[in-house]
Amino acid sequence: MAVTTLQRRDFMRAVVAQAHDDGSAVSPWRGGSLYQYFDDEADLLVELHREWLRVLVGRLHHGEIVARRTVAEIRDLYDAACADHPTLRRLLDSHLANPALCEPVCREHAMLARIAGLAPEGTSTEDAAELGRVLVSLRIPVQRGAGTAPVSRRASA
Asked: Does residue 52 form part of some domain?
């Protein structure tokens, strides 16, 4: 019997649910039926990353944020996706050293850098990915109250 994409996604989502329930991010699929649905752990990690990309791309297209291309908006969107999917993000982060995730994560970061306008046309994928890594790893300071006079705390005499 052939395994369908739906069965693979169901198993992958069950892994995320298990990781959420027991707080494990290392290998919540061990002892399960991984090999019934995936070739190996690397195959599952790539599918987990595809799920993450579905989340990101869905948010990028929501509200036409792709057209705005501001660094702050892309960073806020990324942070919101992380906050809304902490278990999935934790699973991926705990396996970033796995070679199976190297290329997909590189493409993800390059995509974010290009959408944020950090990597113009012609920028290599590697250079764009480096810019994207910086985008998702650094916090961008927000200038609040620009153009307003500071409030004095001195008491009037």
From this structure: yes
Amino acid at 111: M
Give the gyration radius of the chain's Cα atoms.
20
Q: Residues, the chain, total?
A: 157
Tell me, rounded to whole angstroms, the distance of Cα 111 from its chain centroid.
11
Whether the model clears a pTM of 0.85, i.e. scores above it, the answer is no
Q: Average pLDDT by consecutive 10-residue portion of the chain (157 residues)?
A: 84 90 79 85 94 92 68 90 95 94 97 92 95 85 47 41
Residue 152 within a domain: no
| Cβ-based burial of 67 (10 A; exposed 0-12, middle 13-18, buried ≥19) | exposed
Distance CA 101, CA 126 (A): 15
Residue span of the structural domain in which 127 resides: 5-137
Residue 104's SS3 state is helix
pLDDT in the model for residue 87: 94
Q: Specify the pLDDT at position 129.
A: 97
In sequence order, which residues have a C-beta less than 8 Å from that of residue 7 and are 6 or more positions away?
37
